[in-house]
């Protein structure tokens, strides 16, 4: 922001997160809910939000929109752009897709004793294409509202889906079985969080268009076309080299 200010660029759309709400006392979460983070990631988002509010307060020329994402999933419908975690997936859907393509043997579900309809956590999953359109609407608002200040909007569908419901939707979309194993709750995970979307609908003219069936369809389209993500053939080459090193010389003539 210091560099932006020096160059007289004082318009900013920031990617925040619903994790700033922590576990709300009730759902859906409105933008004016008390903020109570429960994990380090959420803390970083809240700190950034606070910095931006302070910057605007100190210099009202700044126009800022804070977009609180809920749970982004899915891929570009072309199957050419998608999510490819470099390390162990921390989010549900990349983990699910890695099981579906054989990169992981089983999906670990953290927590089956939440007071929800099937015992698993409830989240508001939103298609990445809806998030993209939310950004364009936020930019429109930023450049057409001189007194916008530092505004906050939720980007979610307003609907809560359990982990098991999301897995079932992916199984239906892909035709692949997803073996499950259950583990205890992770520290910082919340029982149920989903968005109130009325403010974004009213002030941005934005509303999510895609449901979980669309999200899973597009996520699977990406996964089946790119089972090793952007690494593709590089990943296969790594496996081949490991095989060469592990196989006896006498076996290589038929194995390669």
TrEMBL record:
It is an enzyme of class 5 (isomerase). Pathway: Carbohydrate metabolism; galactose metabolism. One of its GO terms (molecular function) is UDP-glucose 4-epimerase activity. Belongs to the NAD(P)-dependent epimerase/dehydratase family. This is UDP-glucose 4-epimerase. One of its GO terms (biological process) is galactose metabolic process. It catalyses: UDP-alpha-D-glucose = UDP-alpha-D-galactose. PANTHER family: UDP-GLUCOSE 4-EPIMERASE (PTHR43725:SF47). Residues 6-218 form the NAD(P)-binding domain. NCBIfam families: galE. SUPFAM superfamilies: NAD(P)-binding Rossmann-fold domains. Its EC number is 5.1.3.2. Gene3D superfamilies: NAD(P)-binding Rossmann-like Domain (3.40.50.720), UDP-galactose 4-epimerase, domain 1 (3.90.25.10). Keywords: Isomerase, NAD. Its cofactor is NAD(+).
């Amino acid at each position: 922001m210091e560099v932006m200010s020096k160059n007289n660029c004082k318009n900013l759309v920031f990617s925040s997160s619903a994790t700033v709400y922590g576990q709300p006392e009730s759902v859906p979460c409105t933008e004016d809910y008390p903020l109570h983070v429960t994990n380090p990631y959420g803390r970083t988002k809240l700190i950034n939000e606070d910095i931006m509010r302070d910057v605007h307060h100190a210099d009202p020329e700044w126009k800022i929109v804070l977009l609180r994402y809920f749970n982004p999933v899915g891929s570009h419908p072309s199957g050419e752009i998608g999510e490819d975690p470099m390390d162990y997936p921390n989010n549900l859907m990349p983990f699910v897709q890695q099981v579906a393509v054989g990169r992981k043997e089983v999906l670990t579900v953290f927590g089956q004793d939440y007071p929800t309809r099937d015992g698993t956590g409830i989240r508001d999953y939103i298609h990445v294409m809806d998030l993209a359109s939310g950004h364009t609407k936020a930019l429109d608002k930023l450049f057409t509202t001189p007194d916008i200040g530092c505004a906050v909007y939720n980007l979610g569908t307003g609907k809560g889906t359990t982990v098991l419901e999301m897995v079932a939707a992916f199984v239906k979309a892909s035709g692949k079985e997803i073996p499950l194993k259950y583990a205890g709750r992770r520290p910082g995970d919340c029982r149920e969080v989903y968005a109130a979307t009325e403010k974004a609908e009213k002030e941005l003219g934005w509303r999510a268009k895609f449901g979980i069936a669309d999200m899973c369809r597009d996520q699977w389209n990406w996964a089946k076309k790119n089972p090793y993500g952007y690494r593709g053939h590089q990943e296969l080459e790594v496996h081949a080299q490991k095989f060469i090193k592990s196989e006896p010389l006498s076996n290589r003539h038929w194995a390669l």
